[in-house]
Amino acid sequence: MRYGYFDSERREYVIERMDVPVSWTNYIGTKDMCGVFNHTAGGYLFCGSPEYHRITRFRPNGVPMDFPGHYVYIRDDADGDYWSISWQPVGKPLDQAKYECRQGLSYSTYSCQYKNIAAKQTLFVAMDDPVEIWDVVLRNDSDTARELSVFSYLEFSFHQIDMDNRNFQMSLYAAGSAYKSGIIEYELHYEEDSYQFFTSNFEPDGYDCLRDSFIGPYRTESNPIGVEKGALSGSKELGGNHCGALMKKLTLAPGEEARLIFLLGEGGAGSGAKMRERYAKPDAADEQFALLRRFWDEKLNKMVINTPSEGMNTLINTWTLYQSEINVMFSRFSSFIEVGGRTGLGYRDTAQDAMMIPHSNPAKCKSRIVELLRALTNEGYGLHLFEPTWFDGTQKRQSFKSPTVIPTKSAEDRVHGIEDACSDDALWLIGAIVNYIKETGEFGFADEKIMFADGGSGTVYEHMTRILDFSARQVGQNGICKGLRADWNDCLNLGGGESAMVSFLFVWAARQFVELAEYLGKTEDAGKYSQLADDMAKTCEDVLWDGEWYIRGITADNRKIGSHVDGEGKVHMESNTWAVLSGVAKGERARKCMDAVHDYLYTEYGLILNAPPYTVPDDGIGFVTRVYQGIKENGAIFSHPNPWAWAAESMLKNGERALKYYDALSPYEQNNKIEIRQAEPYVYCQFVMGSAHTAFGRARHPFMTGTAGWAYFAATQYILGVRPDFDGLTIDPSLPENWKEVTIKRLYRGAEYDIIIKNPKSGKSVAKLYVDGEEAAKIPVFKKGTAHRVEVTLS
Ligand code: GLC
Q1: Are strands 610-611 and 571-572 parallel, antiparallel or unpaired?
Q2: Ligand 1 pocket mutation, candidates 327, 487, 488, 700, criterion most atoms within 8 A of CB
Q3: From the CB of 106, is ligand 1 less than 6 Å away?
Q4: Is 193 a catalytic residue?
Q5: Helix (H, G, I), strand (E, B) or coil at 455
Q6: Alpha carbon distance 217, 228 (integer Å)
């Protein structure tokens, strides 16, 4: 069953049926101001921090589903009937009103046709101002003049989400509202200069600043008294719950259109007045929208692929890059799942996100890498979860004053000890740094000095050596890297036990570092770390090979995890894919272990993480043994590591399997199976229920997952095989046999490469490479602004 379709020309996903099983979300904003909204305009807005600077309120995981939002109501003043432009909150029967939602790149558009009134509401954040714009258009499609009233509604939040959710003795008396000259001012009285405004480009015919006056007692957003009566009460007060309700009466002649702009922004009435003037004419909103379009066009044009797979083209050229960007821009803690109570950066997630898209967002990837470098300890482990402001000198948090005493964390408390360190966290950062340099050619970055979290400073290069030295020191009784609190798998808690995955990851990171060291002429270091990598690779081969695949690890009491003798948790995806990705597993072992992945873990919706799932709690292995079967880390199709298998199969030149796995996980391919998938078909979810669960195939936790970055990286750099290198591009595709031709337009260090890969004989590797018509050994870095043609033939 399908609920919508991909409109690739406009780069939108169009939801035609509103009663989707769960919220289908989207993100607006490209800088500090960010909003998360679903297909019925439910959602919230924040600026900078979803924990400390919430602007609008949201009641997550509640009933009715995902209320409130940024709503526009229309009332027919002839008979008092009213509806909302988004299906919710009023929720007219779907056979009486026609609704549509278009999820676009950093905007959402809701439209409705009811009683011959066509209405449309677009939400987006201005590129040049910290202002959310609601662009509302109404048209009278009937043949008589219509008297209508239009109402906006949003519910303000106390800035600090914890206070807003539980400390009402404070929050309800520390926020006030005022109204003057068309502008609602919302003030957080205890925070200096902390205001929001809500205004419009018209003279309102009424307003309410108090939520309870607008909604009325024993009512909800679905039937607010203000809309029902067709008149607002002019409420405002110091203290209480506040809202942004502005009303406009309109008379529309047959065929006539009206356009209203609402503005929700940072700052007090003064800022509101300025914005009101700036956006007085809708052209100003059009300009900002055009800038937003250009912003995304530029990003997406950095790489455009054309393969025989419409699904891959649609996802890679638009949605997967978009999802990867959202992760880099806003990290993980703003969604309908993480609603702002946990913020800051997760070390491993951020490092992986930053590794994937330096071609599209070099500035943000670099600043994320720097934030992570600052959160590295002298010991060489990263702080698993941290606030970048702890280390960048801005400390915005302290401006929040609370009469409730909350102890402030001292600088030392922020730096956790090794007992809270995860063994993989900082290793990812090496990949991110090397990939950043390969993409941008910014070799000088290696010499930049950066502070350590616990004092002192060192170059980026030195930080990298600390990371590798830490992992090289932290080995267990078998010479394999320790699992510590967790490795990539949060639920595998091995402590002093050993992690196969991290050992492979160490080899992967060390070899990338060695490449960089060699390139920078640091031969001694290159030799040293190359030796460490070789030694670890040998230990892995000696200790971890189980006969048909690699084990997942070893417990502190020296029991193997993921061996053929195990009844459950027999085969694991992480160790086997990383055995190949690290280059440790070669030849027959590589083939065999990926065959085990196929035979034990493949399902029609993607690869499950481990099979069979655990049923018997075993604290030597970790929390994973206490998770329900088929959910999350215990035998679900955990999406994030799926692309590891695409990449590993590509390295083994098994393009068929790489694509089979790609398609199995692809949300695009599940557009017609929403009764099973439930979640958005335009983005990856954190996991899909595994075959051991009754809801096999149901996807959960959209958008904020490292899957997007890895999917983008594995598809472009491994399946299609276009990889940046220190001194040019490398092409090493692994295509399915029936793909005869693929073209890729790639911008690299300012030059344009038009790449055509020809595969007439279902080839596995590059036989011929022509650059601008001349046979070449590699693809060099060209001058900025030039365009080049690259032709590759596989055989
Ligand atoms: C979640 C975490 C991520 C972890 C993964 C597997 O997605 O954000 O850090 O690697 O779960 O446990």
Answers
A1: antiparallel
A2: 488
A3: no
A4: no
A5: coil
A6: 13
Sequence-ordered strand ranges (E) for 20-95: 26-28, 33-37, 43-47, 71-76, 82-84
What's 630's DSSP letter?
T
Q: Is 93 exposed, middle or buried (0-12, 13-18, 19+ CB in 10 A)?
A: exposed
Which pair of tokens denotes residue 190? 């205890």
CA distance 731 to 722: 5
Is the pLDDT at 398 greater than 60? The verdict is: no
- Closest ligand 1 atom to residue 424 Cα is 10
Q: Which residues contact 72 (CB under 8 A, 6 or more apart)?
A: 84, 85, 86, 119, 121, 134, 136, 150, 151, 152, 153, 262
Residue 48 gets the label, from left (phi > 0), alpha (psi -120 to 50) or beta, of: left
Pair 602, 664: CB distance under 8 Å: yes
Cα distance between residue 504 and residue 180, in whole Å: 63
pLDDT digits (tens, 9 = 90+) for 621-645: 999 999 999 999 999 999 999 999 9
Those residues with Cβ within 8 angstroms of residue 361's Cβ, 6 or more apart along the chain or in another chain: 299, 325, 328, 329
Quickly list H helices, 488-522.
Answer: 500-519
Going across the sheet that includes 482-484, the strands are 482-484, 495-499, 553-554, 560-561
| The one catalytic residue among 141, 490, 534, 595 | 490
Q: Is the dihedral of CA 649, 654, 655, 658 positive or negative?
A: negative
613 close to 634: Cβ distance less than 8 angstroms: yes
- Number of alpha helices (DSSP H) and beta strands (DSSP E) in the chain: 22, 41
- Confidence band (pLDDT; 50, 70, 90) for 339? confident
Instruction: Please work out whether the CB of residue 490 comes within 6 Å of at least one atom of ligand 1.
Output: yes
Ligand 1 pocket check: which of 327, 333, 347, 349 to mutate, most ligand atoms within 8 Å of Cβ? 349
Q: How far apart are CA 55 and CA 33, in angstroms?
A: 10
Residue 740 burial class via C-beta count within 10 angstroms: exposed 0-12, middle 13-18, buried 19 and up: middle
Burial per residue of 405-418, b for 16 or more beta-carbon CB atoms within 10 angstroms, e otherwise: eeeeeeeeeebbee
Residue 544 is which amino acid?
Answer: L
Helices 320-330 and 347-356: angle between axes, nearest 10 degrees: 140
pLDDT of 192: 81
Residue 399 has pLDDT above 60, yes or no: no
Task: Give the N- to C-terminal CA distance of the chain in Å, as an integer.
Answer: 41
C-alpha dihedral sign at 163, 165, 168, 174: positive
CA distances from 402 to 55, 160, 169, 170, 452 (A): 18, 10, 12, 8, 31
CA–CA dist 277, 280 (Å, integer): 5
The span from the CA of 42 to the CA of 58, in Å, is 8
Half-sphere exposure of 255 (CA within 13 A, CB side): 0
Q: Is the dihedral of CA 349, 354, 355, 361 positive or negative?
A: positive
Asked if 553 and 494 touch (Cβ cutoff 8 Å), the reply is yes
Average pLDDT over residues 220-239: 98
| Chain length of the chain | 795
Nearest CA to ligand 1 atom 3: 349
Tens of pLDDT, residues 345-375? 999 999 999 999 999 999 999 999 999 999 9
Q: Model-level pTM?
A: 0.98
Residue 685 dihedral angles phi and psi, to the nearest 5°: -110, 165
Which atom number of ligand 1 is nearest to the Cα of residue 686? 7
Residue 449's beta-bridge partner residues?
Answer: 459
CA–CA separation, 252 and 428 (whole Å): 59
